[in-house]
Write a structure and sequence with these properties.
By secondary structure, the protein is α+β, with helices and mostly antiparallel strands. It has a three-stranded mixed sheet with strand order 1-3-2, covered by helices on one side. Helix 3 packs across helix 5 and helix 5 packs across helix 9. The longest helix is centred in the C-terminal third of the chain and has 17 residues. The protein is globular, with a radius of gyration of 17 Å.
Length: about 200
């Protein structure tokens, strides 16, 4: 399964917002060739950081006769439970890591800390690693899958004219308000063409 395949399923299934996160998990579980289960775990941190992290944890099978599949986990700061829209976006962003290639996965402690340092440093494009680029891509994938083009386009003109405010679009799509200007901008179409077409 590619991101485009997931997008096509969502586009056919959802004719109005919001796109359901649990349904996205079901689609990944049902159609992704290797990831057969995605588990969610809330984690308590001394300081709330509102972050989430995707990782592959092992293999399982439904029965002794079935093929093995990969089990993935998304662990998230329990503080996100108090912010449903932010939680939904963060979990969806992490879910998009099922599309990472082997070489861009942060599947070791060293790679994870390397990525954290890179996120802190915000390197120039020519110095970015594949793992950092997939972080950026996963944010766009989350935005596009939660706000598919056929639904998003219905709101663009009213947003640009000022007839619709960001909070109204955020409410319709159940996303954080800070995501709305990004979605309603012209760059959405460029990224959409790159990731979906």
């Amino acid at each position: 399964m590619r991101f485009k395949d997931l997008y096509d399923l969502v586009e056919r299934e959802f004719q109005q917002p919001p796109v359901n996160f649990d349904r996205l998990r079901e689609l990944i579980n049902g159609y992704h060739p290797s990831v057969g289960r995605v588990e969610l775990y809330a984690v308590k941190f001394e300081e709330q950081n509102h972050q989430a992290h995707y990782r592959l944890v092992g293999y399982d099978r439904s029965s002794a006769y079935d093929e093995e599949f990969i089990v993935a986990q998304i662990r998230y700061c329990e503080g996100l439970d108090e912010h449903p829209r932010a939680r939904r976006f963060a979990l969806t962003k992490e879910l998009m890591h099922v599309f990472d290639s082997e070489e861009t996965m942060t599947n070791t402690r060293e790679k994870f800390f390397e990525l954290l340092k890179e996120i802190q440093d915000r390197p120039l494009p020519e110095h970015r690693t594949g793992a950092f680029n997939t972080e950026l891509d996963s944010r766009w994938m989350a935005a596009i899958i939660l706000c598919p083009k056929h639904l998003r386009d219905q709101y663009v003109e009213e947003f640009k004219s000022g007839d619709l405010q960001p909070f109204e679009i955020a409410e319709a799509f159940r996303i954080p308000e800070w995501v709305v200007p990004i979605l309603m901008g012209d760059y959405y179409d460029i990224v959409f063409d790159k990731l979906v077409k």
